[in-house]
Structure formats: structure tokens, C-alpha cells
Amino acid sequence: MKAMRLLRWTAWALCAVLLAACASGPVRRVSEPSARIQQLTVQADGRWSTELRIENFSSVPMRFDRIDLALRIGDADAGRLAAQPALSVAPESADVVTVVFAPQLAAKLAVADALAAGRSVNYTLAGSVDATPEEAKPRSFEIERNSALSPAPGLPGVMR
User: Fold this and answer.
1) How many Å is the maximal CA-CA distance in the chain?
2) How many Å apart are CA 62 and CA 65, to the nearest integer?
3) Which three-class secondary structure state does DSSP give residue 27?
4) Which neighbouring-strand residues pair with 153?
5) Which among 20, 27, 112, 136 would be 20 to 30 A from 13, CA to CA?
């Protein structure tokens, strides 16, 4: 009889613990976002149109309000990718912001040379992105990304 009572009490306690665990809901994790150049297009007027891919690794939606990233092509400063996109990105998703700017001469020459030779060029993004996680305060995230762009076959003036 005692064993039966103990078993019944243990079963009720286990049910209560499981119900309490379910009540907490999904985990709300805010992770640092990432940014990278998805495509760089050299326009006829010499400016660059950059498609900047913003990646939200958080388990909650984030609203991206400000982007301020210094771009280096090889060893040359290209300029700043600055925008105020007011872009909401779903959890664990990404979206693209287009930023058009006039690059500095040394970076222009490096990209023109890479396009003419059909070779890739290294780039670095460094700066900050301001984002607001759902139901939280705005935060500033530091971004540093090193990668490369290569000429897109059949698309003159485009690097990916």
C-alpha cells in the first residue's frame, strides 16, 4: 500500500514538473547579427550598388534601424556603407539592404582590376549595426567580416 501511494505521489509530482516546464514557452535567444556583401555592382556613373545581406541568428524577430560599416577592398579604404533601413528580419532568417555609395579611388581601381582580370578580391566590413529584438531595448552590435568577392559570369561589372 505504501509503495502504491509513493508511486501515485511520484506520478503527480512528475506531471506537475512537466506542466511547469511547458508554461515557460520557447527560449528567447538574442544572438549577434551578421552582415556580408551579397553583390557589388559597379554603376555607369562610377558609384557602387552593394546588396548587403543582414543575417538574424536570434530566435526572435529583430528590427534593423541603422547600419554603419567601413568597407575595405584589399588594402584600400572604399568608404562607408551607411543606411537606416528600418528592416524587420524574422528569427533565424536574412534579408538584403541595397546601399549605393561613391567609393574611394584606390578601391575603385582594385575592383576594376579584379573585374578585368576575372579574379576575386578580398574585402572587410567593420563597424556597427543597431537592432531592436522583439519586446526588448535597442542594441548596438559590432560587426567584423572578412570575405571575398568574385566576378559574376555573364554579368559585367558585378561581383558576388
Assistant:
1) 89
2) 9
3) coil
4) none
5) 27
Confidence of residue 155 (pLDDT cuts 50, 70, 90): very high
Give the chain's domains with CATH numbers.
Answer: 34-159 (2.60.40)
Q: What is the pTM of this model?
A: 0.82
Spatial distance between the Cα atoms of 75 and 62, rounded to a whole number of angstroms: 33
pLDDT bin (cut points 50, 70, 90) of residue 22 is low
Mark 131-151 as b/e (b = at least 16 C-beta within 10 Å): bebeeeeeeebebeeeeebeb
Query: Could you tell me which residues are beta bridge partners of residue 34?
Result: 55
Which pLDDT does position 3 carry in this prediction? 63
- Bridge partners of 99, per DSSP, are 50
* Cβ atoms 105, 57 nearer than 8 A: no
